[in-house]
Every structure is written in C-alpha cells, then in structure tokens.
Amino acid sequence: MAATATQPKVIVIDDQPVIADTLAEILKQNGYDAVALHSGEEALNWVTRSQPAIVLSDIRMHKINGIQAAVHIRTLYPTCRIILFSASAINESEQAAIDECGFEFLHRPLHPKEVLNQLHGRARGRVLPFLPPRRL
C-alpha cells in the first residue's frame, strides 16, 4: 500500500531487525506509514527530521533504551502516542517511568492482531483496558 498524507506515521524501534522490520511491514499492510528503526540512537536521529504520530518500541536495547528514547521523543512531540513492549518482566523504576509519562505497555511476543487492536482501539476513541505488566 502506498503511503499517503493521511496515514498515521509510526516508528517501530527494536534492536532485533527482524522484529522491527516485520512489525513495520504489518503496519504498512494495514494502512500505517511505518518505518523500522534498529536502535534508540537511530530513532532519536530520525525524529529530528520527521514527527511520528505513534512510537512502538522495545524497552530493552543497548546504549539508549526504549524508555530513554520515548522520554526524549515525548519531550519533542508531547502528543505522540508511545507504546512500549518487552519480553522481560519490567522492574519498579521502569514501571514508574511508564506510569509517570503515560506510556502504554504490551508484553512480547506481540501478536500482530494484538498490536493492531491496540492501535485501532485508540484510533476510534476507545481505550483498551490496561493490563499491568509483570514485575520482578
């Protein structure tokens, strides 16, 4: 599907390229203008050139993790919707940052339908129930 100006711009950030690339491709096939990025540093560089509507990011990454990148992006673009994910249980400081910043959270492995339901649910003004992440 070709990108249009009305499609929400989404950046998918994961240091495992197969995950970022696959999620971005699924989003493109479902009407999103999605870009796969493979590090927090790459994401911060990218957002200086283009404003995303939605950020979908893994938490656990080298150097700049997903929470650090998300906080920086939220500072630049306060209305950007940020959804973080992780295959690991999150610790108390990560949970506090997620809560304080109003980020959303999904557990990995991510099923494409789960991600699309999360995005479409909010897009239609219907916020899906928040399920608290597992803690250590």
Any key phrases for this structure?
136 residues, 18% strand, 5 helices, alpha/beta, globular, five-stranded parallel sheet
Q: What would you note in describing this structure?
A:
By secondary structure, the protein is α/β, with parallel strands linked by helices. Helix content is 40%, strand content 18%. It is built from 5 helices and 5 strands. Helix 3 links the parallel strand 3 and strand 4. Helix 2 packs parallel to helix 3. The radius of gyration is 14 Å and the shape is globular. The termini are far apart. The C terminus is likely disordered.
Write the SSE topology.
Elements: E1 9-13, H1 17-29, E2 33-37, H2 40-47, E3 54-58, H3 66-76, E4 81-86, H4 92-101, E5 104-107, H5 112-123
Parallel strand pairs: 1-2, 1-3, 3-4, 4-5
Helix pairs in contact: 2-3
Count of beta strands: 5
| Overall form | globular
- Residue-averaged pLDDT: 84
| Helical amount | 25-40%
Structural class: alpha/beta
Termini distance?
A: 41 Å
Tell me the series of helices and strands, N- to C-terminal: EHEHEHEHEH
What would a concise description of this structure say?
The protein is α/β, with parallel strands linked by helices and 136 residues long. The protein contains five helices and five strands, in the order βαβαβαβαβα.
